[in-house]
Specification:
Elements: H1 3-12, H2 26-32, H3 51-66, H4 73-92, H5 96-108, H6 120-128, H7 136-144, H8 147-152, H9 164-167, H10 176-185, H11 195-204, E1 208-211, E2 218-221, E3 231-233, E4 236-238, H12 242-253, H13 256-270, H14 277-289, H15 294-301, H16 318-328, H17 336-346, H18 369-382, H19 391-398, H20 405-412, H21 417-425
Antiparallel strand pairs: 1-2, 3-4
Pfam families: DUF1800
InterPro entries: DUF1800 (IPR014917)
Protein name: DUF1800 domain-containing protein
Length: about 425
């Protein structure tokens, strides 16, 4: 395995499985993973997977609780099956680059499954996954109109003060969704927006809610809760009604500050914690010139010299690390449950960040001493799955030229095969991508 193939697998992908084919052309291999026809998570046929079925399951749980029943069996089944299916795909499939993009954009548009447990899996499958190589405006619209985001950021109860519902005085304007879309998802404070823009955008989004008891079982626009009249956000005026919200989101999606923000985050994730300005400028230019084509930006990203040199410039977050370990040990599909537990133990629970900003993406946030000790403990426990594997062979297969001679010497001196494997899995180079 040459150096470029090794970097493609660990920096852009999620780590090699020893039996994976080695691509002759790593860039072409990465490009091929932008194909929207690639399969998503494999879900059981009887699992509630569309919004009507999910909301009916929610209603069944509600009725059971009202009748004095215990627990939430539908909720537990739905959310756990969705999570394990997603982790299984990451652990077993040879499309790590696409899965990394799904995780990146799901973290950019973070929701917490603790708040929307029924919906987190559907949200990732339907609002994020189909758009990772499409247009940013389509992803933004899908995200903001999805029940998970509307519920997570409290827009379902946001009422225009001068709307018919607002005049009755039961509820008021909620700015959470508007604020986070501006601050985190699109233009950022660098655009110069102010509190008046936040309030006006919140008014634009009034009436955007969720219907869970009947058709359409999902997004619904409620005119009686919508603030009447035109609104002005960042100097642009939008008409009243649902169409005004759509126009506002498209405007924000194509704002130059949005393109710069997205470029910075992509370069930070794939190149360096301190994004090189020239790399950011390149991706910013592609987004601007293609009107937010994420596929074009991603293809440009993998052609940046800085994305390949130096190797191992990024520290693996717990999610990256756990999946890479499972892949290195060629874990079977049923090991997804162990991976889920590992994410909980190492502080990056799947689809459950502590705040709308999502999980951090730099070494300083993940490389604290206590966190590293936990990685060693978890890796030593999971290394039992690699019983019988030669540590040096695993290192060669998954790291290739990225593996240091010091690691191989330390593994050779280990007191047991398990300890040798643990040394490889917790080596400095394995912690990086």
């Amino acid at each position: 395995m040459d150096l470029k193939a090794a970097i493609a697998a660990v920096r852009f992908g999620q780590g090699r499985r020893p039996g994976d084919p080695i691509p002759a052309d790593p860039v072409a291999w990465l490009d091929s993973q932008l194909d929207p026809a690639l399969p998503g998570p494999a879900l059981p046929e009887d699992l509630p997977r569309d919004l009507p079925a999910i909301y009916r399951a929610f209603a069944e749980d509600t009725e059971r609780l009202r009748a004095g029943g215990q627990g939430r069996p539908n909720q537990g089944l739905i959310v756990r099956t969705e999570m394990l299916a997603a982790l299984t795909l990451e652990i077993t499939a040879n499309q790590g680059f696409r899965e990394r993009l799904v995780a990146f954009w799901a973290n950019h548009f973070a929701v917490a499954r603790a708040r929307v447990p029924y919906l987190a899996g559907h949200y990732t499958r339907e609002a994020i996954r189909p758009h990772v190589a499409g247009r940013f405006e389509d992803m933004l619209l899908a995200v903001v109109r999805h029940p998970a985001m509307l519920a997570y950021l409290d827009n379902t109860g946001s009422v225009g003060p001068n709307s018919p519902a607002g005049q009755r005085g039961r509820r008021g304007l909620n700015e959470n969704l508007a604020r986070e879309v501006l601050e985190l998802h699109t233009v950022t404070p660098a655009s110069g927006y102010g509190q008046a823009d936040v309030r006006a955008f919140a008014e634009v989004l009034t009436g955007w809610g969720v219907e869970g008891a009947r058709e359409p079982y999902g997004f619904v626009f409620r005119p009686n809760a919508h603030e009447p009249g035109e609104k002005t956000v960042l100097g642009r005026t939008f008409p009243p009604g649902e169409q005004g919200g759509i126009e506002a989101l498209r405007f924000l999606a194509h704002h130059d500050s949005t393109y710069r923000h997205l470029a910075t985050k992509l370069v930070r994730h794939f190149v360096a914690d301190e994004p090189p300005p020239e790399a950011v400028a390149t991706i910013h230019g592609v987004l601007r010139d293609t009107r937010g084509d994420l596929g074009a930006a991603t293809r440009a990203l993998v052609r940046l010299d800085a994305a390949w040199d130096p190797p191992l410039a990024k520290f693996r977050a717990p999610h990256d690390f756990v999946v890479a370990v499972m892949r290195a040990l060629e874990a079977p599909a049923e090991a997804a449950d162990r991976a889920f537990g590992g994410l909980q133990y190492l502080g990056q629970p799947l689809w459950n960040p502590a705040a709308p900003i999502g999980f951090p993406d730099t070494a300083r946030d993940w490389a604290a001493p206590e966190a590293m000790v936990r990685r060693i403990e978890w890796s030593n426990g999971i290394a039992t799955r690699g019983a019988g594997r030669d540590a040096a062979a695993v290192a060669e297969a998954v790291l290739g030229p990225l593996c240091r001679p010091e690691t191989l010497r330390a593994a050779a001196r280990a007191g047991s095969a398990r300890d040798a494997l643990t040394l490889v899995l917790t080596s400095p180079e394995f912690h990086r991508r």
